[in-house]
Structure formats: C-alpha cells, structure tokens
Automatic annotation (TrEMBL):
GO molecular function, one term: kinase activity
Protein name listed in UniProt: Diacylglycerol kinase
Transmembrane segments: 27-46, 52-71, 92-113
Subcellular location: Cell membrane
Gene Ontology cellular component list: plasma membrane
Similarity field: Belongs to the bacterial diacylglycerol kinase family.
Cofactor(s) listed in the protein's UniProt record: Mg(2+)
Organism: Chryseobacterium mucoviscidosis
Domain of life (superkingdom): Bacteria
Keywords: ATP-binding, Cell membrane, Kinase, Lipid biosynthesis, Lipid metabolism, Magnesium, Membrane, Metal-binding, Nucleotide-binding, Phospholipid biosynthesis, Phospholipid metabolism, Transferase, Transmembrane, Transmembrane helix
Membrane topology of the entry: Multi-pass membrane protein
Active site: 65 (proton acceptor)
Binding site for ATP: 24, 72, 90-91
C-alpha cells in the first residue's frame, strides 16, 4: 500500500483533531482550558521555561484524551455489547487521562503560584 503525500497525512491528522472538537465533550472542555492557559501565558508574561511546561502538560492532556477516545471507539466497534473486559480496558484508558490531568493541575499550581503571588504582593 502506497503512503499518502505528507500534506494529505497532515490534513487527515488535523481532521481528527477537528472531529474530536466537534463530537467529544471532554475534549471540548480540555481544549477550553488550553485556551485559558494560552491567555494566562500572555497575560502573566510567563517565562519561556514556564510556558514550555504549561504547553507540554496542556498538549499532553489533549493527546491522552485523543488516545483514550480512540481506544474506546475501537472497543465499541469490536464489542458493542457490555463486557467487563472491555469495561476494564476503557477504565484504564480513562485512567491515563485522569493521571495526565492531575499532573497538569499540579504543574499549573506550581507555575502560576509565583505569578499570582507576585501580583497580590504588588497590589
């Protein structure tokens, strides 16, 4: 099978992100928090290192959610009826998202704390 040109592969990949945005509520919420973080990066004038940390965990949550959704869709396709084994697979996949979200909150608190503290100390 011949591989598609790079531009078609990229188009398909971005289509996947747009499909997630259109159909998956959790992804929509996580994407909204990504934009909140973008706003805070510029508003608080984060350092390069802090910006990289925030972007890494933000994209990590989004990527993990995409993988979780893919696993759930495959499970539903392979076995549409309830099965405890499929439930186990879906639960551990969702667990990966939760762990990444917890990490992102921890990093967010550690990064933003010093900026918020600075603002309150200078009021």
């Amino acid at each position: 099978m011949r591989k598609p040109p790079v531009h078609k592969s990229l188009r398909n990949a971005f289509r996947g992100v747009f499909l997630m945005m259109k159909h998956e509520r959790n992804f929509q919420l996580e994407f909204a928090t990504f934009f909140v973080n973008l706003f805070l990066i510029f508003y608080l004038k984060l350092s390069s290192t802090d910006t990289i940390l925030i972007l890494m965990v933000s994209f990590g949550v989004l990527a993990t959610e995409i993988l979780n959704t893919a696993i759930e869709k495959i499970c539903d396709f392979i076995h549409p009826d309830f099965d405890k084994r499929i439930g186990f697979i879906k639960d551990i996949s969702a667990g990966a998202v939760v762990l990444m979200a917890i990490l992102s909150v921890m990093v967010g608190i550690m990064v933003y704390w010093k900026y918020v503290e600075f603002i309150f100390n200078n009021l």
